[in-house]
């Protein structure tokens, strides 16, 4: 018994050693920016500006998820090569991944620049929100291009078990972002007052700084030299890029399916007016922050499972999955309890006016009870990706979102209710039932003997 406890304790320390840098990295890149932006823009006391920012940020989250798809798929491949000590193959796959990210990042930039206003119109927001939000969306699409490239570089580091350096780079970028955002939103130190557009300019500075540091670190570090022997950095291998896109398509679809569900959710709630739009943004940002520990463990489980399978350690891979699932359950449950108990405080920090605060507090407490379904599917989906079952994750998410969430949420949005709060809860709650169905499907796949791909 003591031996089992010692083994659990030691392996737990290793897991937390990987997890903590990932948590810090994800929190400052995914959770903190929208929270910080909302806090700054709330001080303008404009529901229109607040709603425009929230709808743009929500849509941009889908683009960020797309930028994650290429490196997430690459981690599974590079991790296996690295586990087998094939450094040259790891380096070659990274270079091809980098070029893939550049091409896809440029494509989204062109699309968003010319279609920004139409995106707002499709979301169904009031005309004044669309007018304010269109320039913001165009500016942020440039920083998303930089994010595509940056995440590929950081993904390479993670695939070879370096999670600390991405954390440090992200912390530097976070400091640059927060300082520049504060200065530009309100116009301190002689800089012009940019208002809602301040965070967009700050994001350009943030991602530009992080990308410069990441590229310099990887290509000037002697430790990484074995990965780039006889590689031509500026030679584009179109066949390899095509193979990467083909392998990444399932990840792109499954990540975009879930993130697009948030966009669709915002569109359904937009029919209820500006107060519901602002409330959605507040609840989404707070619950996304609470679930960051699960998102960090999802990154870790993908990396560990792929390395275990590369080393032919099949039973260890499965033990790691279930251990991470239990630890995540304990941590996320604690954060959700804190969020519910102090809902009035957290919402008060982000709300632009008392009407929205009063509307959001009870809704946050009710919906927090359903978040447990979301973190479970996050961990299980990441484990299956690390095992090479990217198509399984893709089809599961695509079909459940398309066949359940989209039609159910649309039907609910067209129904009349005596209480707007009830309608809001039912539409938003449908999203979490959606994730519960995904979790059940992923669990059934892991229970099979063919839960991993032998060759990827």
Describe the 3D structure.
With 456 residues, the chain is mostly helical. It has one domain. Helix content is 84%, strand content 0%. The chain contains 15 helices and no strands. The protein is globular. The N terminus is likely disordered.
Keywords:
single chain; 456 residues; mainly alpha; 15 helices; globular
Quaternary state of this entry equals single chain
Beta-strand segment tally = 0
Binned, the helix content reads: over 70%
Low-confidence stretches: 1-10
Strand-residue fraction?
under 5%
Overall SS class: mainly alpha
H/I helix tally? 15
Domain count: the total is 1
- Which term fits the overall shape? globular
- Termini, distance in Å? 38 Å
Largest beta-sheet details: none
Radius of gyration: 22 Å
Order of helices and strands: HHHHHHHHHHHHHHH
Mean pLDDT: 82
Q: How would the blueprint of this fold be written?
A:
Elements: H1 2-42, H2 47-83, H3 87-123, H4 127-159, H5 164-186, H6 198-220, H7 238-270, H8 274-290, H9 292-310, H10 314-341, H11 343-350, H12 354-368, H13 371-386, H14 390-414, H15 420-446
Helix pairs in contact: 1-2, 1-5, 1-8, 1-9, 2-3, 2-4, 2-7, 2-8, 2-9, 3-4, 3-7, 4-6, 5-6, 7-14, 7-15, 8-12, 9-10, 9-13, 10-12, 10-13, 11-12, 12-15, 13-15, 14-15
Write a compact overview of the structure shown.
The chain contains 15 helices and no strands. The protein is mainly α. The protein is globular, with a radius of gyration of 22 Å.
